[in-house]
Amino acid sequence: MTLLKGLGTGLCLTVLCLLAAPKAKADEWNHKTVITFSGPVEVPGVGQHLLPAGTYVFKLLDSSSDRHIVQIFNQDESQVLTTILAIPNYRLKATDKTVITFRERPVGEPESLKAWFYPGHEWGEHFVYERSRAIELAKETNEAVLSTPVALTSSPVEALNTAPVEAVNPAGETVDTAQVVQAPPAPVMAAAPAAAPAPEEVASLPATASDLGLIGLSGLMLLGAGFLVTGLLKKSV
């Protein structure tokens, strides 16, 4: 009976683990992160562009290409506040905590969201602003800003999947996105293993000698022995 009870408990624990596993995987896949801002924060994308101080939920919606789609929800996740286009950005060292970076703004202006790094990952999300706003931020911060010529305020969310991405410098000129985001380093090709030495071959000499000579010699010896015995017998008679 005790064995059956123990088996029943084990089965229950197994079921609970199986039920819990999908949720853990989902959080890892969509990088769900709860973030609290102590002040207002400007964000790009389709939807609300100024988030008041408060708690928000960040989720990665899609990462099937060289561009990612990020959604920001209210605290109870009942409403999507904005959907943002982002480009993967590499960092040399991953951390075990969430990292949010902002652009330095003039005193009194809200912080401007720049990038989001999920714990344990070397790449993060570098956010893309609408071109007109990107140029303004580039001038304010004196650094290049990722931008898109698509009018995000009046475009559907689906437009983010095909929106072109570029970068603009403080002069309003289009520059290479490599000035803003760092691509992952090229994979180091493993050195080809040294060729194993060819197996040592043991040379064998051809069998040129023959057994015929030995057989002939033996025959002669036997024949001589026969003559000797015959001679002895004649003498004795």
Task: Give an overview of the whole structure.
The chain is an alpha+beta fold. It has a domain at 24-179. It is built from 3 helices and 14 strands. The chain has helices at residues 2-30, 131-141, 212-236, and strands at 33-37, 41-42, 46-47, 50-51, 54-62, 68-73, 80-90, 99-103, 111-117, 123-127, 129-130, 145-148, 166-168, 174-175. The strands form 2 sheets. Strands 1, 2, 3, 4, 5, 6, 7, 8, 9 and 10 form a 10-stranded mixed sheet that branches. A hairpin with a 7-residue loop joins strand 8 (99-103) and strand 9. The N and C termini lie far apart (110 Å). Residues 1-26 and 196-212 have low confidence and may be disordered.
Low-confidence stretches: 1-26, 196-212
Residue fraction in strands = 25-35%
Q: What percent of the residues sit in helical stretches (DSSP H or I)?
A: 25-40%
Report mean pLDDT, rounded to a whole number.
75
Cα Rg: 42 Å
Q: Report the strand count.
A: 14
Shape: globular
Give the helices and strands as they follow along the chain.
HEEEEEEEEEEEHEEEH
Distance between the termini: 110 Å
Count up the helices.
3
Biggest pleated-sheet summary: 10 strands, mixed
Q: What structural class do you assign from the helix and strand content?
A: alpha+beta
